[in-house]
Amino acid sequence: MLVYVAKRLLQAIPVLFGVSLLTFIMMIMVPGDPAQKLLGQRASPEAVQELRTRLGLNDPPVQQYVRIMGNIVRGDLGRSVITRERVIDEMKNRFPVTLRLALLAMLFSTVTGVVVGIVAALNQNRFLDRALMFVTLTGISVPVFWYALIAILLVVFQLRWVPQTGIGDGSLAYYWLPAFVLGTRASAFIARITRSAMLEVIRQDYIRTAHAKGLAKRTVTLKHAVRNIAIPVVTVIGLDLASFIDGAFLTEYVFNIPGLGRYGLTALLNRDLPVMIPLVIYTATLYIAANLLVDVLYGVIDPRIRYD
Amino acid sequence: MKRPFVLLVALLVGVLGFATAQGTLNLSTNEDWETLDPAFASGVQTGAMVAKLYDGLMRYDYETTDVVPNLAESVDANEDATVFTFTLHEGVKFHDGSTLTANDVKYSIERVLDPATASPLTWVFEDAGIVGAEAFVNGEAAEVSGIEVLDERTVRITLEAPYAMFLYHLAMPAAHIVSEAVTSQLADGEDLSGNPVGTGPFMLADRLRDSSLTLRAFDDYFAGRPKIDGVNYRIITDPLIAWNEYLAGNLDVTGIPSALFLDVVNDPQYADQITATPQLAVFYFALNQRIPELQDVRVRRAIAMAVDRQAIVDGPYNGTDQLANAPIPPGLAGYDDTIEAIPYDPEGARALLAEAGYPDGFTLDIWSTRAEVTVAVSELIQFFLSEVGIQANINQVDFGTLIDGAINGRAPAFYLSWYADYADAYNFLHPLYVASGANRYGYTNDRVTELLAEAATKADLADRVPLYQEAQRIIVEDVPVFYVRYPVSYTVVRPGVQGVLSHPIFNADKFMQVELP
Questions:
Q1: Are B241 and A36 inside 8 Å of each other by CB?
Q2: Among A40, A160, A164, whose Cβ lies nearest the Cβ of B42?
Q3: What pTM value is reported for the model?
Q4: Average pLDDT, chain A
Q5: What ipTM did this prediction achieve?
Q6: Is B312 in contact with B485 (CB distance < 8 Å)?
Q7: Domain of B118: which CATH number?
């Protein structure tokens, strides 16, 4: 197992370089750069050129890339071109905010998703099943931006269940609504996966056997069936968690939450490469880690799976 | 036993009364400040914040657009306005308790000019023509010889030639004074955002990026402590949410979201809460003379004639703004309402195009930023041009790309705006029609250049105005751009909140006048 994990981690290194290089190439191919943004409307073309030179934006792309990656490898993420703040400080400040939101969203989506999925499967083709599947389909289809805005207008301003938007004093009172909005889509997805996995499992012979030997329906469901739907469900949850910790930029944007997603979005709009590249590497790392974690969990969930 | 209870109540009432009489002003902004450092404050929003944290030698009068001495107790100029002597107020304190000296003034200006700072705002001092500034910028001198510290409280600045706008420049964000002791300790690449020590009426109390920023009144402010205890800004990205925060009582001042604009403006319950401030600004549609078709003034005039500008003001802008006729907006000396704007005349436009050799029109690319209103305006113009046979395509790009495209001659036509850096018509003529900075449509006219060069040397506004007006008439005739609107900014202020300035200059309000109910 350890050998397997080590191998996977080694494989991650070229992937991370590849991702950073791809991002870099895409960013420099798109026209426009931060110099004009920094100088504002007043700048003469000469001033823009001068600032580009000072910021190193006129250097050959290879040199720029090597400089940024060199900094990262040395553990110094450098400073934002736009705000001149240290990227590592900003990431440290924002990580806890995003993590809290992610864990809450995860908790909500997993619990509701799995429960809804099982209930729907056990009531297959009855009204309850159809109603739940309709709700989950809506949950997957609705645009997050619109949904978040409606949720805010209703819950914050009509019902007054949340004092205001943003993270206020950082307490749970401010986090539960964005976590709910963020988790909705994942929850709907998990519910649908759980349902189909469950439907497959409850048709298996060993379930029929369990019923036949007179076990209570609850025992059959919770002990025999649920255990066997874990693999597809854990896969979905793992990837969702990665996407949440990566920072849900739309949710963070609409709810005014100062997390990593907001940071990345602003950096992208500003063409702030020294911020973009570390964030992209961070994101890629999360996905690689989540995938690895899920694969390792397979072995725990199903001891027949071995990686040696 | 009763007495202490009464006392306690009295004390509580006193405390509560005190709290409501002073208190904190609650505001919002839709994006975080990119910097809190004067040397980098190139935007309107950062400039407005710099005015709270720092002071310049000069500032805007709170009621008019005149500049008045601020950190300077007195300003003496020689007869031809090339040598200015500033005497600082005595005992002005920085937020860290240290005392402002003339050295800080010299240091602050040199810091902006120093290539090592990489400030985008060097033009604020370069354009003023301070003696020795160029040599300093080019690394040929260790200091700017034209800035002399005469004693602790006196600094003398010498210009190469008279420059009428000099004192305006000193009221701009880049000319706000920083502490040499604090600033010289910054790490390489760091700016003052983390520790914005100025002399301003407010000091930074707390900041969480992309979330909130809190200012606290500076007790030792040289012009007296502000009446409010502090300001709490929240970053609220969506204007609709900000509006609802205002309705919920969480904000004291807000803008009106465009989706609700007419409903709110026409609703009597908000009538006494709305402040309309005409801006010193102009929105214009530029015709790039680097494009062969647009080098002919007849073609540019025909394009202007083809567009019903009133329809643009009435449509995307809700009909609340003034239709623009010329470069200088109302509110500035030099504004001229006798100039007749080019009339809407599609027939005439077609005839003029035929005369210029384009009877069947031609194809024109309009470059537009992605801002919703800008796209809407570009689309309207596209429609009007199609009516006279010009096939216009809209190319949506971001601002930097648009500017690059304009300078390289790839962006033929585009819709932009210009907001005043300072309150003189020179700022609406020189950068846009003479210098290379904002004049992105390749316009030159020797007479205009001459008139503005002359105006710059006239210390007296009354002497400048006729020159501005003559230049303005020439520019309107040349049609390098056509003008669409002079904008009016609408804010809503909670009843009882007083003294939030309705000032057309972005960095005029230091919140010294604000009182809460």
A1: no
A2: A40
A3: 0.89
A4: 88
A5: 0.87
A6: yes
A7: 3.90.76.10
